[in-house]
């Protein structure tokens, strides 16, 4: 499709501004001005609308397609939350208002949303307090590790390492490294769980934290999680919970009760705020009370008269991780979702997410190699390997492209790294049995085609606006933008 | 393919003596595993490394690998042709695909690396 | 329950196929230790959609939303053309996933490529990424990028850079041993002599903002020269609307450009979501964090877009990644792209002129108010300092009672400026509103 810049024609306008009703300001000195205007397109509003509308229909999206992406929790995005988040009382508030004298008084609505969400998430995660500042999951991870670092610094603990399982999401080691720690990777056993012997060998008093997700990225709940927590605490380390897989245990068990000291939650996964094609998301972080003093400021406090205020006076706080209070309009959506589901609805999320995944696994396990031993069932996601299919030359990538051809977004591929030709599948609780049956039919058909006519995969996808794209060429030619 | 003119490391680097210098690259097995090479980050000339240090990186679209220096030394020259034609590592890993050369601290260090036969055996067992 | 399709009979059939010990969902959770399971969360039961809307509507009414806004500080009350909401509320855009599977995501990918292009076009730089969380984290990422590129350890930060963003950088780096230096505070243009004195062979970068926090406009070309003379980089943080008329960071010689894109079609939103952007020059592209879309072709030669240079990112590089960033601000970047497409070259210029013209008019009106001194030393864009004869906080309270968010008392971050108020003007303020604003201030001060 043509770029918007290519549709430009001098003399066309897509905007209207009020007529200038004040005198023209004195010219600025030339040295402060740009030599030429920015080379942006001159197009009408209707051309802009047509351009982006046509772009939009090139996309798969949850409202049209099934997205069984492991680790992403692509559940249905409710429509009423969009409406609430568009309310002018919420969208028009300048973020500096609470920092004006008596400013909190004019922001009571927003402040009560913040406090309400913090309290709800504390209850859901089994933690003592939350910060809503982190602007995405990985940002939450960084905040969490910074909190852990601040805690250790305050207590005079000399810590160098963070332990992460080899099944961990890439953001975990990336986060630990940029927070100044060295990463030690612990291998997983054949059951997909942390190898306890290797873990005990590596754990020592220089370990700042252990970063885990539960269930793990193979969708297996490690029954020894509390033991791992106890050992870590004994060694003077803290337990960090990557909340990417929270959907599996919502309303059934809480990370705080499993022994985690710091958790981050991905609101754009578990709490259904839309993915937006890559954000915005939000990654609130919950802590146990020992870490409360280090939470970022500001903190929302409830005064004795029931009103809300912002407290900036926390001497041990790690400071600001966001410019203000977090991605507020995303927080509003999550809060509305939680109020709508309530305790009963949230419990059904966990139960049905796990039911759907196990059902799908039962349909597929005879056609693709399970990524680990699922005899004790999986939780909300499971990993299959396309190793059998690879023998006839069909890789996980080929299967992914074939699925796109059939109108299904592929599962996550090549993650976790510990399974070869990995296909990581998470249906979520919002899919019907019929959708799962259809997906299984397609996957089974593809397994058959991998056996009978493996050469047919190379040309897939065919039914899409573009065929398989040359990623090598993209790197080599490095065409990253269209300039004037 | 294993070149008889080089010695090898377990991490699939090769080293070849060239007068008082040692030329270094990655083996045919390594380039096959990586797939089409799209970028090589060359070391800085004059940098000194201990044996086993990561001196360069080599990238395909979806993977990155470190190139570990087989013996201690100082980088004397780098294969700048790889800046525009990184695929030379795939097409001629032991020749035009050389990555960098060093002045080794001790030329004798080469003797502790794997002979072509020993490297072949390692590959068979893999 | 809402959004869940499984009926009791569905569940029965599915459990049978799965084959569990006792045919119940509890069997699937048996790996969870019984003693740790909870029966139910201690939360109220779910409310209907109608009731939730009512509850949140009641909460929303606790916000005073019709104050006339003269507060800026990096976040501006600009008009948002309606086409932006209309387009970004299409579910093809907002319920789409990250475009890891490019054949299923050409809409998102082309939009990212166009956004990257638009950012390059307004800043003059050669490559941009798909977005960062906000202008503050973008500065932190730029500083880290400069450290990576130069292999050095010192960053010089001007006090004219937003105090909120400075606080963020220091928060992020407190566990790292980076050497930060700030030249002494000057209200107007930055202190060249001090900066030249600080830049040395250990300096990775100097970080400046234009216009600065006080709205002062500057030309940093000479500082770029000072930096480059010592092998250091210049990082510029910019206000994109001002680039309708102001000298671009490229023209000044900046190496990395960052900024906050909220002023490009994103509502004030009480803190977020916002939009960080980052752009740089060709030699530094591989050191840049964040997602990047690139153009390529498919096997039939048809043009398409993919996420590229992914080996920089966390999912491949893991602990050696340029950043841990994963989810960014894609939908906000789309808003900014549509905004820039609607305004175009002439529109952005006109918008910038109107903001400045109205700000100069406001200055003229405020100059006439007894007791108010308006900052005049250097040219400003759409924001400027005024000095009051009494505590600005008293003035703010009284003005709030009259329906105004009259400005930002900067003493909170610059204690020496305890009588000053930072006032911002956008195209939304009319001549009459500005005149009345000045009259109100006079009233509050003297009656």
Q: What does this entry look like structurally?
A:
The complex is a heterotrimer of chains A (484), B (126) and C (447). Chain A is of the alpha/beta class. Chain A has helices at 45-56, 80-85, 88-91, 108-125, 137-154, 171-178, 196-202, 225-234, 255-258, 328-364, 387-391, 396-405, 433-452, 471-477, and strands spanning 129-131, 161-165, 182-186, 207-212, 238-242, 262-264, 285-287, 299-302, 308-311, 369-370, 382-385, 412-413, 422-425. In chain A, helix 6 (171-178) links the parallel strand 2 and strand 3. In chain A, helix 4 (108-125) packs parallel to helix 10 (328-364) and helix 10 crosses helix 13 (433-452). Chain A starts with 44 loop residues before the first helix and ends in a 7-residue tail after the last helix. In chain B, 20% of the residues lie in helices and 33% in strands. The radius of gyration of chain B is 13 Å and the shape is globular. Chain B contains four helices and nine strands. Chain B has a single domain (7-107), classed as RNA polymerase II/Efflux pump adaptor protein, barrel-sandwich hybrid domain (OB fold (Dihydrolipoamide Acetyltransferase, E2P)). With 447 residues, chain C is α/β, with parallel strands linked by helices. In chain C, the strands form four sheets. Chain C has a seven-stranded mixed β-sheet, sandwiched between helices. A four-stranded antiparallel β-sheet of chain C has the order 11-12-15-14, with helices on one face. A two-stranded parallel ribbon of chain C has the order 1-13. At the A-B interface, helix 14 of A face loops of B.
Coarse morphology of chain A: globular
CATH topology of chain B: OB fold (Dihydrolipoamide Acetyltransferase, E2P)
- Fraction of residues of chain A in helices? 25-40%
Structural class, judged by helices and strands of chain A?
A: alpha/beta
Helix count of chain B equals 4
Radius of gyration of chain A: 25 Å
So, CATH architecture of chain B?
Answer: Beta Barrel
Topology:
The complex is a heterotrimer of chains A (about 475), B (about 130) and C (about 450).
Chain A (H helix, E strand, L loop, with lengths): L44 H12 L23 H6 L2 H4 L16 H18 L3 E3 L5 H18 L6 E5 L5 H8 L3 E5 L9 H7 L4 E6 L12 H10 L3 E5 L12 H4 L3 E3 L20 E3 L11 E4 L5 E4 L16 H37 L4 E2 L11 E4 L1 H5 L4 H10 L6 E2 L8 E4 L7 H20 L18 H7 L7
Parallel strand pairs in A: 2-3, 2-4, 4-5, 5-6
Antiparallel strand pairs in A: 1-7, 6-7, 8-9, 10-11, 11-13, 12-13
Helix pairs in contact in A: 4-10, 5-6, 10-13
Chain B lengths: L6 E2 L4 E6 L2 E6 L1 H7 L4 E3 L6 E2 L4 E6 L4 E5 L4 E6 L2 H4 L3 H4 L8 E5 L11 H10 L1
Chain C lengths: L7 H11 L30 H12 L7 E2 L12 H7 L2 H4 L11 H18 L3 E2 L6 H16 L3 E4 L5 H11 L5 E3 L10 H7 L4 E8 L10 H9 L3 E6 L10 H4 L3 E5 L15 E5 L12 E5 L5 E5 L6 H4 L12 H38 L5 E2 L8 E5 L4 H10 L2 E2 L2 E2 L10 E5 L6 H16 L1
């Amino acid at each position: 499709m043509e770029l918007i810049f290519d549709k430009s024609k001098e003399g066309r306008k897509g905007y209207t501004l009020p007529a200038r009703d004040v005198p023209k300001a004195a010219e600025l000195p030339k040295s402060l001005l740009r030599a030429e205007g920015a080379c942006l397109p001159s197009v009408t509003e209707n051309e802009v609308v047509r351009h982006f509308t046509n772009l939009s229909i090139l996309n798969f999206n949850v409202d049209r397609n099934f997205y069984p992406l492991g680790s992403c929790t692509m559940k249905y995005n409710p429509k009423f939350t969009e409406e609430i988040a568009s309310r002018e009382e919420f969208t028009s508030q300048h973020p500096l208002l609470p920092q004006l004298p008596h400013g909190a008084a004019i922001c009571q609505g927003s402040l009560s949303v913040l406090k309400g969400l913090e309290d709800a998430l504390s209850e859901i995660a089994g933690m003592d307090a939350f910060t809503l500042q982190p602007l995405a999951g990985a940002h939450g991870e960084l905040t969490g590790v910074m909190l852990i670092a601040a805690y250790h610094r305050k207590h005079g603990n000399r810590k160098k390492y963070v332990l992460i399982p080899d099944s961990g999401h890439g953001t975990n080691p990336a986060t630990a490294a940029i927070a100044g720690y060295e990463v030690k990777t612990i291998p997983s056993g054949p059951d997909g769980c942390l190898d306890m012997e290797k873990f005990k060998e590596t754990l020592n008093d220089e370990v700042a934290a252990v970063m885990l997700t539960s269930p793990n990225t193979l969708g297996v709940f490690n029954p020894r999680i509390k033991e791992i927590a106890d050992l870590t605490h004994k060694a003077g380390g803290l337990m960090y919970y990557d909340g990417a897989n929270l959907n599996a245990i919502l309303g059934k068990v809480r990370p705080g009760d499993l022994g985690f000291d710091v958790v981050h939650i991905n609101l754009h996964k578990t709490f259904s705020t839309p993915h937006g094609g890559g954000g915005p998301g939000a990654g609130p972080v919950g802590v146990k009370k020992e870490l409360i003093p280090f939470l970022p400021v500001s903190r929302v406090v409830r005064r004795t008269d029931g009103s809300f205020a912002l407290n900036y006076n926390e001497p041990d706080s790690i400071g600001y991780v966001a410019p203000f209070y977090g991605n507020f309009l995303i927080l509003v959506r999550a809060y509305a979702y939680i109020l709508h589901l309530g305790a009963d609805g949230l419990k059904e999320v966990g139960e049905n997410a796990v039911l759907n995944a196990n059902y799908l696994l039962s349909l597929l396990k005879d056609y693709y190699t399970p990524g680990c031993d699922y005899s004790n069932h999986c939780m909300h996601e499971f990993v299959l390997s396309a190793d059998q299919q690879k023998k006839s030359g069909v890789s996980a990538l080929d299967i992914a492209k074939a699925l796109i051809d059939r109108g299904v977004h592929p599962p996550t591929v090549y993650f976790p790294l510990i399974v070869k030709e990995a296909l990581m599948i998470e249906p979520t609780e919002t899919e019907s049995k019929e959708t799962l049956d259809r997906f299984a039919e397609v996957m089974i058909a593809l397994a058959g085609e991998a056996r009978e006519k493996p050469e047919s995969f190379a040309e897939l996808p065919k039914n899409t606006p573009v065929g398989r794209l040359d990623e090598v060429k993209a790197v080599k030619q490095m065409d990253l933008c269209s300039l004037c | 393919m294993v070149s008889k003119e080089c010695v090898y490391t377990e991490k699939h680097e090769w080293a070849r003596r060239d007068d008082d210098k040692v030329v270094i690259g990655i083996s045919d097995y390594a380039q096959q595993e990586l797939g089409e090479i799209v970028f090589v980050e060359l070391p800085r000339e004059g940098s000194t490394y201990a044996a086993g240090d990561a001196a360069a990186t080599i990238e395909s679209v979806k993977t990155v690998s470190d190139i570990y220096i087989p013996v201690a030394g100082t980088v004397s020259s780098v294969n700048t042709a790889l800046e525009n034609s990184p695929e030379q590592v795939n097409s001629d890993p032991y020749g035009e695909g050389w990555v960098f050369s060093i002045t080794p601290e001790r030329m004798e260090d080469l003797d502790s690396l794997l002979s072509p036969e020993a490297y072949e055996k390692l590959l068979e067992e893999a | 329950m809402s959004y869940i399709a499984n009926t009791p009979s569905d569940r029965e059939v599915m459990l049978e196929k799965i084959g569990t010990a006792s045919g119940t969902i509890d069997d699937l959770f048996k790996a969870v230790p019984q003693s740790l399971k909870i029966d139910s969360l201690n939360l109220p039961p779910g409310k209907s959609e109608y009731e939730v809307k009512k509850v949140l509507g009641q909460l929303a009414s606790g916000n005073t939303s019709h104050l006339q806004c003269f507060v800026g500080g990096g976040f501006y009350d600009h008009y948002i053309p309606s086409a932006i909401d209309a387009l970004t509320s299409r579910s093809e855009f907002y319920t789409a996933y990250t475009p890891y599977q490019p054949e299923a995501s050409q809409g998102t990918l082309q939009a990212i490529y166009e956004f990257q292009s638009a950012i390059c076009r307004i800043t003059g730089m050669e490559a941009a990424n798909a977005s960062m969380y906000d202008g503050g984290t973008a500065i932190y990422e730029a500083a880290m990028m400069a450290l990576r590129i130069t292999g050095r350890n010192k960053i010089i930060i001007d006090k004219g850079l937003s105090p909120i963003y400075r606080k963020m950088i220091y928060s992020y780096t407190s566990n790292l041993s980076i050497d930060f230096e700030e030249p002494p505070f000057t209200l107007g243009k930055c202190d060249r002599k001090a900066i030249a004195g600080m830049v040395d062979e250990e300096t990775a970068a100097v970080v400046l903002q234009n216009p600065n926090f006080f709205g002062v406009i500057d030309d940093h070309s000479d500082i770029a020269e000072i930096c480059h003379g010592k092998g250091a980089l210049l990082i510029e943080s910019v206000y994109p609307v001002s680039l309708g008329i102001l000298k671009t960071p490229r023209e000044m010689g900046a190496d990395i450009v960052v900024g906050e894109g909220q002023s490009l079609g994103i509502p004030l939103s009480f803190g977020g979501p916002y939009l960080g952007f980052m752009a740089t020059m060709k030699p530094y592209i591989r050191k840049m964090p964040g997602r990047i879309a690139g153009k390529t072709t498919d096997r039939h030669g048809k043009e398409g877009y993919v996420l590229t240079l992914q080996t920089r990112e966390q999912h491949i590089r893991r602990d050696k990644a340029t950043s841990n960033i994963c989810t960014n601000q894609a939908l906000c970047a789309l808003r900014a792209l549509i905004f820039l497409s609607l305004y175009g070259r002439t529109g952005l210029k006109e918008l910038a002129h109107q903001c400045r013209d109205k700000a100069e008019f406001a200055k003229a009106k405020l100059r006439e108010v007894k007791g108010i001194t308006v900052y005049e030393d250097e040219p400003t864009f759409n924001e400027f300092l005024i000095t009051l004869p009494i505590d600005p906080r008293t003035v703010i309270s009284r003005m709030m009672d009259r329906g105004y968010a009259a400005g930002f008392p900067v003493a909170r971050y610059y204690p020496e400026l305890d009588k000053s108020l930072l006032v911002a003007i956008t195209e939304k303020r009319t001549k009459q509103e500005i005149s009345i604003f000045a009259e109100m201030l006079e009233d509050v001060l003297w009656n």
